[in-house]
Design brief:
With 556 residues, the protein is mainly α. It contains 20 helices and no strands. The model is unreliable at 1-7 and 549-556 (pLDDT under 50).
């Protein structure tokens, strides 16, 4: 199959022309949006003016990028349903949990970044630590998306992956620099419409090729590269394992390692991303609490439905191309299916849809990281700095952040794993202090810092403890690769070890907070104006009966 070799699609020039036209449209919207940006609030949270439709679309677009589409399809091809618990299942879980528990409180605080929350609740040092972790995570996320962009260019033109990644970097810098959150919001609806239409068309074409829906949901055979039970969500019991393959456990890991891996798969994005700045910016852009709550919940449900489309396509791809080369499986499954089965105009729209999803997510992550360095960095060291100056520095940070993400993209070329480990950084370091900030009054700065440090330290320590076992488990398992496949062994160990990091973070938060109450009295949680934040009525759906959102919007 020529398309699987990466030497270029027969009509690659036409695809590039269509993609180039779409890029010009994006840049034009960015330029137009820049005319409406007059303050830091406009640039970071779109002036807090988004209604339910725009806010919901923006939240879905935050993550519906290369990881959910290209990465998830490849993971489903290789591992089946167990391979995609991270995304879309974990990502949908995150949106719903945020809507139910945190959206009202975060929007009520009227923060501009998550660093505002950590800094005001736990002090300057914890604010700096949180900012460092979030920026690292966002850069890893952007790196994963740049790999997706580069893979598309490489597949359809034969250009080296690095060239495509570089081109994506240039477009992202210009697009994000100009319009900020306004540009992202204005293009999200267009981008999601294109990608949804493209995915649905591909699905309708692919299902009959696979033998119909009954064949798609058939659980009697292992329909993936590693012969795992296709639709298993939980670790496979020994009684239900296939005797021929011995595929018990989760991704072949049994005992506590299997359950730890399963929990990490759901929590890496499901809980880790709750503290992510790009998610927070979309919530904070909503016009009131009620809009923030319901946009999160609706987005979570829609995200799961839409996210399962590339998962199903990846499973179908295994039926169509069971002998596909391993390097092509990682990131190119959807591209191969599009090239093989869509008409030319369909391919152009499909590629534009993939790039649309990628660009929206990447721009949001770049803006998130830049806002923390530009806004929080400046206000931390100079509280009297002007809004005009912070806006200038935030924009200046856009190319710097993107350049750092470019380095990550060139170093790690697997979309799905790079995406997931980025959010695991936040899970082990920030999740416990984040929850305690709202719901445990005795949490203090020293406890939060201890949780942050212990989470990372134990995570890395446990990684080295598990690495020998994961290396043994990944010996002679990849087709065409003899001996240990270290790439899988490394990621497996990082995920399994993250549970110990999270547990250490929770324990140290509690212990150190209780031991240091006198020398570091806990600070009450406050809003952006340093006024006490009312943490009552936090449950999301309560917004249906409350008028607080309307009062707040009127006050602003």
């Amino acid at each position: 199959m020529e398309q699987a070799t990466g030497t270029g699609y027969e009509y690659g020039t036409i695809v590039l022309i269509g993609l180039g036209a779409y890029m010009v449209i994006l840049l034009g919207i960015g330029w137009w949006a820049s005319k409406r940006v007059v303050s830091e609030s406009d640039y970071l949270v779109a002036g807090r003016r988004l209604g339910l439709v725009l806010s919901t679309g923006a939240l879905i677009a935050t993550w519906y990028g290369a990881g959910t589409t290209m990465g998830a399809a490849g993971a489903a091809f290789t591992f089946g349903n167990q391979g995609v618990l991270f995304d879309p299942y974990g990502a949908a879980l995150c949106l719903i949990v945020v809507g139910l528990v945190f959206a009202r409180l975060v929007r009520r605080g009227r923060y501009l970044t998550m660093v505002d929350l950590f800094g005001l609740r736990y002090g300057k040092h914890m604010g700096l630590a949180a900012g460092f972790a979030i920026v690292i995570a966002e850069m890893g996320w952007v790196g994963a998306l740049l790999v997706g962009f580069g893979t598309i260019i490489e597949f359809f033109t034969g250009l080296p992956l690095g060239w495509g990644i570089g081109l994506g970097t240039v477009v992202l810098v210009i697009y994000t620099y100009l319009g900020g959150m306004w540009a992202l919001t204005l293009t999200d609806a267009l981008q999601m419409a294109i990608i949804i239409l493209s995915m649905v068309v591909m699905l309708l074409i692919a299902v009959p090729l696979a033998g119909g829906w009954d064949a798609v949901f058939d659980t009697s055979a292992a329909n993936n590269m590693l012969n795992l039970n296709q639709w298993d969500f939980f670790p496979t019991s020994a009684a239900n394992a296939d005797p021929e393959y011995g595929n018990a456990g989760f991704l072949y890991y049994t005992g506590h390692m299997g359950w730890f891996y399963w929990a990490a798969a759901l929590m890496a994005i499901g809980f880790g991303s709750i503290t992510a700045q790009d998610l927070a910016q979309r919530m904070l852009s909503a016009r009131d609490e009620r809009t923030s709550v319901w946009s999160c919940i609706i987005a979570g449900v829609l995200y799961l439905v839409l996210g399962l489309v590339p998962v199903i396509l990846g499973m179908i791809a295994f039926k169509l191309y069971p002998d596909l080369g391993f390097e092509d499986v990682k990131n190119k499954v959807l591209l191969i299916m599009a090239a093989e089965h869509l008409p030319l105009i369909g391919v152009v729209l499909f590629v534009c849809g993939l790039v649309a999803a990628l660009m929206s997510s990447a721009a949001a992550a770049i803006l998130a990281a830049a806002s923390i360095i530009g806004y929080n960095g400046m206000t931390t060291f100079n509280p009297e700095v002007s809004d005009k100056t912070t806006l200038f520095v935030t924009r200046l940070c856009v190319p710097i952040i993107t350049a750092a993400a470019l380095v990550l993209a060139l170093r790690f070329e697997t979309i799905y794993n790079l995406m997931v480990v980025a959010w695991t950084v936040l899970l082990v370091g920030l999740f416990a202090p984040y929850v305690a900030a709202f719901f445990w009054k005795k949490a203090n700065g020293m406890g939060a810092l201890a949780a942050f440090i212990a989470g990372f330290a134990v995570w890395i320590f446990a990684y080295y403890l598990y690495l020998p076992a994961t290396m043994a488990a990944n010996t002679d398992v990849v087709p065409g690769v003899e001996g240990v496949y270290f790439d899988w062994a490394m990621w497996d160990a990082l995920y399994i070890a993250s549970i110990w990091g999270l547990l250490a973070s929770i324990v140290c938060l509690v212990v150190f907070s209780l031991l240091t109450q006198r020398i570091d009295p806990p600070q009450p949680i406050v809003d952006i104006d340093r006024q006490p934040l009312d943490t009552g009525d936090w449950f999301g759906p309560a917004a249906l009966t409350g008028d607080r959102g309307e009062v707040e919007a009127a006050a602003e």
